[in-house]
Amino acid sequence: MCATVAVLTLTACSRSSDGVPRPTAAGPQLATVERLVEQGTVVADDPRLERGAYAFLDRVGHPVLTSARTFAPELHCDAANDEQPKGPRPCRASIPARLPDAPFAIFVTQDDRPAGGAPADAGLDPMRTEPSPQPSAAQEAAGAADLGAPVHDDHGIRTVLLERGATVDAGTLTSAEMFFARVTPAPPLAERALSTEPFVVPPDALLRLSIGIEEIAWTIDSAPVFFRVVVEDEHGGAQQDLFRRILDPARRPADRRWFDSDIDLTDLAGKKVRLRFLSEPAESGDTRPSLPLWGDPRVLATQKPRVRPSIVLVSIDTLRAKSMSTYGAAFETSPNITALAKQGALFERAYTTFSNTLPSHMSMMTGLYPVTHEVIAPPAVLGERHVTLAETLRSAGYVTAAFTEDALLDSHRGFRRGFSSYFENTTISTGAGDSPGTFGRALEWAGRNADEGFFLFVHTYEVHDPYLPPEPYASAFDTPEAKALAASQRAYLQEIRYVDDVLQRLVAGLRKVVPEQDLLLIVTADHGEEFLEHGMVSHTQLFDEVMHIPMVMVWSGRIPAGLRIATPVSLVDVMPTILALAGVAIPDALEGKSLVPLLHEPPGDIGRDVVFGESPPFLQMAERRFVARSADEKCILTASGAGDACFDLARDPDEQQPHAPQETAAFARLHDLGNEYRERAIVIQRRRDDQHRRAHAGTVAATAAAAARPAPAGEPAEPAPAIERKLRALGYTQ
């Protein structure tokens, strides 16, 4: 490999036809011609399989040609114990009658108890698993697993292989395990062939793809899989193998991941062909099931000199502008970001849309305010009517990847939409960060995909509470002024200084991968942090220690160096600005503005001087709150209207002197705009509450109808422990 993740160093890399990264000094040379995972490109769909879905292997997800559909199982459990109604009960599992026909199904549930069997606060996230015990000689001779015995591993996933028509022991399950249990049909491997529509192969083309086997097949006695890519002429005549590989993750731990490959198509240039993706038993006659995956296959070809940049968007969670030397803080916390800003544009008045992670990042990725995208808290998921930044860039031909850290940026909220590769670092403690590991994986990916124009999103929780700076940073700012700060605030400053250095190594590595003139870099944050400036800690209020965030944009030769922009801007502006700079059409529905008119000397006008934000109810602040701000004024509004107040930021930058909204014409105008946002939010909240009430009424009715059945389908679900733990650790619940 050309990467050393631990120290974040990487030489520029591209790939040869065997998929191995090679050093190169050139910029991106390839462009996507055909994306085979999109609907309509591949024919012969199997109703038991799902195409275009994401599959995660070892925390890395790709959109795939074939992914196994999952269904709620049929569980037959003993009656609840009166003394412990939510305690574990013996259960049997069978394949649901509605399940598409398949000889086998895989039953899986997340074990929410430690080895001793007592309930525990266990996660519900995908977890790595070890292989099942080696099959006996009799099992190998029969070519099938022991269908009557569940497999228990050491990582919280419990698996049973079900045979069509059989009911087997599922073990002793709690109500949470029953609720989250799923079954997946496992059709014969020989039936999993897919073919493309005929297409003409362009000159100097290659096929780039990933292969793997779904993680739930690692814990059963699954068959080794023979992956083949076959090319045939458009009439189904002459055939030729282009790619061959066997994976056996049930017995080979090294096979438990994605394998990336490039397949040379230059000899087929100008020919009209179709590609067939075959996954077969490695040994003839082997009837054991498995779940092979083809990850995001696409045809690439040499392009003309590129005019679009590769794009890197970095979000440093909980980084407030107030504590950065880049924005005038007394301590030298961010010298590298300051140097980076001098190479491009620094937005002096950049603000978030929400005081915590999930809604603010969704605004960043959609160009919409929280009142519109409505992803305020779990379990909300982004609506299909909204398009993401990654989806838009992918449609424009970019290869896209995200590298995130665990908690609220999980893929299921809608963040993974449009990403060719989505990595979730779930190995760190909630709220803590691993910027060297996460940035290092991102840099390695950039090196392996440097021959394409890419969009790379990178997120770290490094400066989020708990503040745990490593040495020598934990000894930084050893002055009387710094020691006078609260220990937590000083540790926060030290972590900023640490991340500033890690970020610099990321930037240096990226510039070795992509020439500076081809690299658009944006560094920002989702919200800030408060340290009792207004009586609270964490990030729950709408004062500037929470809402004022950094924003730096650099593109050598395109964005003038040393720009300092005073116009108020928002996270909703990130998406339209990136699209405008990349020459990609901006969707009409976005609420953000392209900031390109500001990236000149002197700056132009974007047709807006007010931005908005909000915060949820929290502790003594029992109401939602909203904020509208211009360059020099700010109004904070409550949901009820009681206690609305405005601030003159030019005279009172620390927001200590509230004024009545009608005290000045500027306050009155700003308050009126904030009130429009508030009223819209309240209407949407009422509609959402009505929907929840109707859904709850339906659940109650279903529970009553199912009361006489032994299965626990109507039983109230226990809280998802991992989500609850994440929210508590991030300070969003008590």
Can you identify the CATH superfamily of the domain at 310-608?
A: Alkaline Phosphatase, subunit A
Shape, please?
globular
What is the helix content? 10-25%
Name of the CATH first level of the domain at 310-608: Alpha Beta
Mean pLDDT: 82
Architecture per CATH nomenclature, i.e. the level-2 architecture of the domain at 310-608:
3-Layer(aba) Sandwich
The main sheet comes to: 10 strands, mixed
Number of helices: 13
Q: Point out poorly predicted stretches.
A: 1-25, 114-154, 702-719
| CA gyration radius, whole angstroms | 27 Å
- Oligomeric form: single chain
Question: How many strands in all?
Answer: 42
Classification by helices and strands: alpha+beta
Strand content: 25-35%
What do you see in this structure?
This protein is an alpha+beta fold. Among the domains are: about 75-190, no CATH class; about 310-610, Alkaline Phosphatase, subunit A, CATH 3.40.720.10. Strands 8-9-30-29-31-26-32-36-27-37 form a 10-stranded mixed sheet, sandwiched between helices.
Summarize the structure.
The chain is α+β, with helices and mostly antiparallel strands.
Topology:
Blueprint lengths: L2 E2 L4 E2 L2 E3 L5 E3 L6 E6 L6 E2 L5 E2 L3 E4 L2 E4 L3 E2 L5 E4 L11 E6 L9 E7 L26 H6 L8 E2 L4 E7 L3 E7 L1 H6 L1 E5 L7 E3 L2 E2 L4 E9 L11 E9 L5 E9 L11 E6 L7 E10 L10 E11 L7 E7 L18 H8 L2 E3 L2 E2 L5 H10 L3 H4 L15 H7 L3 E7 L15 E5 L9 H14 L5 E7 L19 H4 L3 H27 L5 E6 L5 E2 L5 E2 L5 H4 E2 L1 E4 L8 E3 L3 E2 L3 H9 L28 E5 L9 E5 L3 E6 L6 E4 L16 H41 L15 H9 L5
Parallel strand pairs: 26-31, 26-32, 27-37, 28-38, 29-30, 29-31
Antiparallel strand pairs: 1-2, 3-4, 5-25, 6-18, 7-10, 8-9, 9-30, 11-12, 12-16, 13-15, 13-17, 14-15, 18-24, 19-24, 20-23, 20-25, 21-22, 21-24, 27-36, 28-35, 32-36, 33-34, 39-40, 40-41, 41-42
